[in-house]
């Protein structure tokens, strides 16, 4: 058996069922080995798109994704999407063919490249190919993005045959979390708030049980939106996207517990959201995350689920199950129902004859679209509108490509999400700048024939820069553009295309939703420069 074949078989044996990429000479054999073993290859138009597809896939279904690229430029083309994945701790293995001779035109210092973006690096050896591939997969399954170097001269070498089964590796026993100080803080608190982040995405049940036991309100970072969907004490997203009510209540907390969240500047509005007198606790499986963004009063090292369950097990019997403790009153529950969503916050509709207010657009779409949906949001000025006005059914229904803050990743990420959950309608929310950067992947969208709705918030500009620099009188010629018929561009790729300037223009969306939805629908929504981009003031304070 050759090394490339062994790598493909081992990855499939560990559970890989999809591989995303662009095939060239260096990754031809390893990709075909995965396909021969039973994996599905999803070919992208560009390696950058393939990386984002793998990222969106893994975030949506929770399985390890595999990205396969050519040596040299194939790797560098994928670098932005790879960086987003690494910063988001996406479980991914990147099959990276490696020209190890420094004089080769294809040579890249792959270990240095991986380290530069925060990814792990593994390399396959001829004598240990199966072992090395398995180790890379297991590292990814623990929450790492792994660049797996496949030296060109090694891939064709003979190695020991491998046909499975996958060796069972017993998990390392975890120490029992030390929760006594956290328990004491909860028992002393009268107005506790939980803020759950990316590291708590699988911990809804224990966190809601613990919140019920101690009377805490529930909030999330943007990366964990949907985690507490449907819970009557859910304040939704904290930070720059927070509703006025959420900001008021978090600002009145006497205890804030960050579960798998580093409380970055976006989640805390540069530290101003959390009141100075509140006790702040950080729970994380990675001690290196403690205090990286702000001082905390107490840290608890451990898996979020394990810590929450340990605290539940220690709570006094007379407090367990008390659902109306502290500030959980019927009156507050009613306030959350009435004012806990941006849809319920009044605003002045700034639509005109040629453009639609993005808030009005988003609310109308939320009413039209089926509840069972996956919303994928690109980066840009527009991003708060779909993030806050489009509801999602659960935490898997929201994919937020903001860790690296790169414009242009959302469309391809949505394709990966659609592959992961073809049973749901996938909605890609993008700006006109990000759409133009990534429109080539509409070829892939048409080829896949998956249910995909692309909503372009088209303000004919790089709107964030317009908002940031315009009020100071700076020239904006470099960031504003003539109106472009983006719906026509989408039709040229084989999609259905629709231009929207009013709510009435959304009529064809209803017909498309009725089926069969075998062609993607791209909505070019000509949006006005509304006054609702409140999050931009927060965003640019970090630049």
TrEMBL record:
Which InterPro entries does this entry report, sorted A to Z? DHS-like_NAD/FAD-binding_dom, THDP-binding, Thiamin_PyroP_enz_cen_dom, Thiamin_PyroP_enz_TPP-bd_dom, TPP_enz, TPP_enzyme_TPP-bd
Query: What residue stretches are annotated with the Thiamine pyrophosphate enzyme TPP-binding domain?
Result: 398-524
Residue ranges annotated for the Thiamine pyrophosphate enzyme N-terminal TPP-binding domain, each copy included:
1-100
Q: What CDD domains does the entry give?
A: TPP_enzymes (cd00568), TPP_PYR_POX_like (cd07035)
Q: Which residues form the Thiamine pyrophosphate enzyme central domain?
A: 180-310
Which Gene3D superfamilies has this protein been placed in?
A: 3.40.50.970, TPP-binding domain
The record's keywords, sorted A to Z, are: Thiamine pyrophosphate
The family classification in the record reads: Belongs to the TPP enzyme family.
Extract the PANTHER family matched here. Answer: ACETOLACTATE SYNTHASE CATALYTIC SUBUNIT, MITOCHONDRIAL (PTHR18968:SF13), THIAMINE PYROPHOSPHATE ENZYMES (PTHR18968)
Query: This chain belongs to which protein, by name?
Result: Thiamine pyrophosphate-binding protein
**Taxonomic classification:** Bacteria, Bacillati, Actinomycetota, Actinomycetes, Micromonosporales
């Amino acid at each position: 058996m050759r090394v490339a074949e062994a790598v493909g078989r081992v990855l499939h044996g560990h559970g890989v069922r999809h591989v995303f990429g662009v095939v060239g000479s260096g990754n031809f054999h390893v990709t075909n080995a995965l396909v021969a073993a039973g994996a599905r290859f999803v070919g992208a138009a560009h390696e950058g798109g393939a990386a984002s597809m793998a990222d969106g896939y893994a975030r949506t279904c929770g399985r390890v994704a595999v990205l396969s690229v050519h040596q040299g430029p194939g790797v560098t083309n994928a670098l932005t999407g790879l960086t987003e994945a690494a910063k988001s701790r996406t479980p991914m293995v990147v099959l990276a063919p490696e020209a190890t001779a420094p004089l080769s035109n294809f040579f890249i210092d792959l270990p240095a490249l991986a380290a530069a973006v925060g990814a792990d690096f593994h390399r396959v050896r001829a004598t240990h190919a199966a072992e090395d591939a398995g180790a890379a997969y297991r590292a990814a399954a623990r929450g790492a993005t792994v660049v797996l170097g496949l030296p060109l001269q090694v891939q064709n070498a003979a190695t020991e045959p491998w046909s499975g089964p996958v060796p069972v590796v017993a998990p390392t026993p975890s120490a029992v979390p030390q929760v006594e100080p956290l328990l004491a803080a909860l028992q002393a608190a009268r107005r506790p708030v939980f803020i759950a982040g990316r590291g708590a995405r699988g911990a809804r049940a224990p966190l809601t049980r613990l919140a019920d036991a101690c009377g805490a309100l529930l909030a999330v970072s943007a990366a964990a939106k949907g985690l507490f969907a449907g819970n009557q004490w859910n304040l939704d997203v904290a930070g720059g996207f927070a509703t006025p009510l959420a900001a008021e209540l978090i600002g009145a907390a006497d205890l804030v517990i960050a579960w798998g969240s580093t409380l970055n500047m976006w989640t805390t509005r540069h530290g101003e959201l959390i009141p100075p007198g509140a006790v702040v606790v950080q729970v994380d499986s990675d001690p290196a995350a403690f205090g990286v963004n702000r001082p905390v009063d107490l840290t608890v090292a451990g898996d979020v689920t394990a810590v929450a369950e340990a605290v539940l097990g220690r709570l006094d019997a007379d407090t367990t199950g008390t659902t109306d403790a502290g500030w959980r009153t019927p009156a507050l529950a009613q306030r959350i129902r009435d004012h806990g969503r941006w849809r319920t916050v009044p605003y002045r509709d700034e639509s005109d004859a040629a453009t639609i207010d993005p808030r009005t657009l988003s609310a109308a779409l939320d009413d039209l679209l089926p509840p069972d949906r996956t919303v994928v949001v690109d980066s840009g000025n527009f991003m708060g509108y779909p993030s806050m006005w489009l509801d999602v059914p659960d935490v898997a229904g929201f994919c937020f490509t903001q860790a690296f803050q790169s414009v242009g990743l959302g469309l391809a990420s949505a394709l990966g999400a659609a592959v992961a959950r073809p049973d749901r309608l996938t909605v890609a929310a993008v700006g006109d700048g990000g759409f133009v950067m990534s429109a080539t992947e509409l070829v892939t969208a048409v080829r896949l024939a998956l249910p995909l709705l692309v909503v372009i918030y088209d303000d004919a500009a790089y709107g964030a820069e317009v908002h940031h620099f315009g009020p100071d009188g700076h020239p904006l010629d470099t960031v504003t553009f003539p109106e472009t018929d983006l719906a026509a561009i989408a039709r040229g790729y084989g999609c259905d295309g629709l231009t929207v300037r009013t709510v009435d223009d959304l009529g064809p969306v209803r017909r498309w939703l009725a089926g069969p939805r075998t062609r993607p629908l791209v909505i070019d929504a000509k949006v006005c420069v509304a006054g609702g981009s409140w999050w931009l003031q927060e965003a640019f304070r970090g630049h």
